[in-house]
Amino acid sequence: MKNKSRSKQKNHRRNRRTTALLVLLLAVALAVLLIAVVPVLRLRHAASALASGDYDTAILIYSQYGTLYSADEHLKEAQYQKAVSLLSEGSYSDALSLFTALSGYRDSGDRAKEAELGLISTEIDGGDYNGALTKLNALDDGYTGKDALIQKAKFGRAQLLAGIGKLENAASELEALGDYDGAKDLLNSVRYNLAIDLLAISDFSGAKDVLSSVPDSVSDAATLRGLLDAPFDGVYQCVYTDTAGRTEPGVTSYLWIHSVIGTGTTSTVLGMQEDFSAGTPDAASFGTAALNYVYYQNPDALTWYFSYAGSKDDSDTDGGDCCEKLVLSDDMKSAVTSIVDSSTRKEVTNARTRTWALVTDTTVADTVRAGLRNRLKQDLGMTGNAYFADATNSTAVTHYCCVDNCTNVGTLVAEDAVSRSYYCEEHRSEYEKDSRVSAQEP
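Request: output the structure for the sequence above.
Response:
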């Protein structure tokens, strides 16, 4: 009995050892399965995910297996394909990051350049032309398409320059763009608008010069050029006389009579501005108190009626509205103005009548024109004409930096008695070089 019991114990121990061994073998087999089979299955799943465009899943799986079954190479391919997809979707920043990290893999270097140009292109589309141009100019010639983007940025900047009133600057940019798509049409438009702005202050020679480069097909450029062949432009003077007819020796009134030409003008119309000066006129101050007469009617070539600057004069005993009557001499060397009733055209009782003589001193005449033009510029600037914005220092008007191609708002002002320019903080160094700034300093 004892031998039989002892034999059973031995068998039991043998069975336990056998079971343990089987468990161990099973565990080893399972481990081998996990090590050898699962990665294969996972990597197959990654390949399937990559094929279906699930790049993030593929990248996650491949990144877990290092060099096993060339997972590192598959990881690069997954990252590459994701970058290509991002590039096609316009996600240039993310694509650029991936292509840069993949440097040396396939054509990642060229693709990175493509993404960088795409990123800059979005900046151009967003209106950051100068920022884009700074980046483009820093790139080497290996960037295919760089030159086309430079032209795109310059064209956009020219449009913006024109919109903020920097017309000469815009024209210069467009001239340099040559045959770039849309550049010539925009250049013609900018030149035409510049001519119209110059005509708004009756700068006939300046407008004629600009229009000489504008094709007849642009709006009414041909008609305007015809009217500019012989515009009327005379400065007249007389002893200052107030509305009651009292004179003041030593004070001279000046009357600038000139053609009014602009968009839609088809025939000769005159306008007048008037101011007075004690002594020789000074362009810095002359025109600040100017009266502006607006065309009303002309029954013949020498007789003209204008809205009266005073609207309605107390001396009009008939109680009617007034207008200013101008009668020019046949030789245009003298003129007579009088205040008349708007309806009856009869002279207003006790109102002034003045006789004017043509100013033959060209220096005086040009000073008068300059002063009165300054006043016109101020009025135009205040009413929203961006080209003349700097003629006024009103904070209600937006001023832009005067440095070429800068589109920033100007906050630093350099001025003297006859001129004013604005600079932005970015161009403070240019502002500090402006001679008007040093002259302003105490």
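Residues 399-440 form one domain.
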